[in-house]
Amino acid sequence: MEDYYESHKGQVEWQDGDYTVTRTTVWSGPGCHDGCGVLYYTKDGKLEKVEGDPDCAYNQGTLCMRCLEMPEAVNNPRRPTQPLKRIGERGENKWEGITWDEAYDIIEAKVRSIWDEYAPESIACMIGTGRANCWQVPYLCYSAFGSPNFCLGFLSGESCFQPRSAAMASMNGDFLIADCSQQFEKRYDTENTEWRVPEIIVNWGCNAVASNSDNFFGGWIVDCMQRGTKLITVDPSLTWLAARSEVWLRLRPGTDGALALAMLNVIIEEDLWDHDFVENWCYGFDELAERVKEWTPERGAEICWVEADAIRAAARLYAEAKPAAIQWGLPIDQAVMGIPTAQAINALWAITGNTDVPGGNIIIRNAFDQNVSYNYGYNNLPAEVQAKRIGAEYPLMSKAGFSSTAHSDSILQAIETGEPYPIRMLWLTSTNPIANMASDAPRVFRAVKTVDFVVVNDLFLTPTAVAFADIFLPAAMSPERDMQRVWWVPLRGMKKVVQYAEAKSDDTVVTELGKRLHPENFPWDDDKGWTDNILRTETPGYDGGYDDLCNRDVWVYPDFQYRKHEKGLLRPDGQPGFNTPTGRVELYNSVFSLWGYDPLPDWAEPSCSPYASPELYEEYPFVLTTGARSFEFFHSEHRQPELTSRELHPDPLFEMSAKSAAEHGLKEGDWCWLENHRGRCRQKLHVNPSLDDRVVRAEHGWWFPEREAAEPSLYGVFDSNINNLLPQCENGVTGYGAPYKNQLCKVYPCTEENSETPPSLHVTKMGGYSK
Amino acid sequence: MANALLIDYEFCTGCHACEVACKKHLGLPQGQFGIKLLQDGPRELPGGGWEYNYLPMPTSLCDMCASRLDEGKDAACVHHCPAHAMRFGPADEVAAAAAEKGRRAMFVPTV
What we know:
Oligomer: heterodimer
Distance between the termini of chain A: 67 Å
Number of domains of chain B: 1
Largest sheet of chain B: 3 strands, antiparallel
CATH architecture of the domain at 175-364 in chain A: 3-Layer(aba) Sandwich
Order of helices and strands of chain B: EHEEHHEHE
Shape of chain B: globular
Mean pLDDT of chain A: 97
Helix content of chain B: 25-40%
CATH class of chain B: Alpha Beta
């Protein structure tokens, strides 16, 4: 029998009985950050099944459950079929179906009236994380609305990769990622690439097999393990990766920075650093050594709740491994000390000589130098409008240019106070802030209610849509779109194979609306035309357009070279070195120094912690960490009850140790209140025997599409919402970082008496929470 | 020769991809599985370290992907496993592969 996939190798589309099979790429929604190669099976205009494409080097034929179940989402009866106009009060869930032209007419008229009565910058646009709209909506904001105020959906401190990005960009002049050979189409074929298996991979606050975050496919870690890689894992919980690690550092949530400083101390004190790389390519080693002198493993141990000898063991194992890679995650960003923590971890791979070496942390740029992302179209704004971007009070973001978005917390404050100017209109595409990103969901709920005009453009009617939308626009899902993506490598085509009712892609909506407002910025005809334009004018190394990419290549890998700093490949002047002011990796960050920030890594207690707020700790005796990912969900996606995701994971879960559960008279499956001085929510107990007795983990992103949409229920969005307990606008001095993962709480069982006022009622009708 | 399924439970991450790939192949409703993920641990071991394993087990609904094999395809669970921790083939070949390393299990759902 001929192998089916071999027989179709190189074909982009073919017939298989009644099915049409199409080889292309996915990208959320639904899905995740990744862009895996898939085979779509369609019949009679309907998506029937999805398979992983064995020819695609990115995922090598495999696929996670979220894409395998994709037909359940794409064909879901809950999807709105046409644009909707609100006819009741906000939150009543009363709508009238309208045409796209009617929707555009209303939006255009509103935008023009804001231009006339206020200014373009009174319009803010937001999206969710790492999705297939991360250049379309910024372009809409800058080039159609004329506003500089694009950001993620009230993401406090921009704390999703942006703190790590800003730290890396300022220290190295570039971004670095763990090298699992993902930049080579030949992948693990070490005969034909320079790639080497990392001796050690450090999973630092990242359970990549579940999270697949930052365009990193978690299975690559397992691939490396099967080729000999050993692991170190830094995580408050015993992840599957931690259970297979040489060293598991079960740190107290929010102390990653202290741990990294203590590891630097060991590596420097024990002379385990790479003298050649440090002397030739680093700047500020002596200052770093001086700074970490006081960060002994004993001090780190006391702060992090791990053994000093375990810190030593991890530091030695990492420093002595050649090569070693660090794969890091969101806990770095989601701390007020996010930036200095990222500096410390970046210093670890720099001083151990793992920068841009095979199997280390490699410098990566988008394929074919395509830099179409959060800043796409920003240059269409006049300088005086750019200067009004909200967050100008943070010079690292504004003047030094390390942020590609406005400052989300400051936008919230602008809505609340009208300062520095009022926000009159919000455009929200595929972001569900009150279920997910907004760290203080009740506060954001109250604030957005006051905004004059809100457009929500999403896959489903979400709590955010029901609570705020004046106009709802149904968004196309991944198999309903013609577009492309890079995000590092490869360059990938995305091909439309089905159409759902009247849903439109972001590319189409932005083009059609943009042509009404600023036609000069939208010279293409449609979504394919826009993709073609990006490929031909913004992708200098790629010789082709939409048709070539989507109907011929599907994916294209650019050349990749290691040790680019030695070869003069990083700096615009073509000289060897890094693209930083000193030409070196700046362990002492001269850009930070220029703007008055601490140039060296450091750490401080989170404001809510056993040590910083002992009086709160007495009442709320658990350190609370939130937002760990599960296999079933991509943040607030995949919650519809028809989905296998909900079948396998029906309820919101929180975790505590067996001992703590017993001490509180709790058992597996008990519904409990998690509460602190700000608010409370209810989740179901899962006993996690690996947790420190003083730590509680809670899930994020929960809403219940099967519950009543109208307020006070609002799909139950506040009932299990851990963001009833978190603050907003508590950021690092740079504006980056927020304490999503390091709070305090207490736990007690739900009873009839204490459950009379559910949080959804409390927040939507009684002005509750946010203290 | 019966076909067999090899699971390398050193590397099975418990991601559910096999369960969902199988449900889609068999067209199963909620609550039904052709392969079901089992979990042991996490449990601290007396000598230190942790036991924490997943093992997907074929159910009586597993049809060994007969229609996929007829088309020249591999088994849906094996194809999609993000950890490349599964293998499918004639039982003697799978048994030989199982003996190559530890922490592997072999299932023969039907003969």
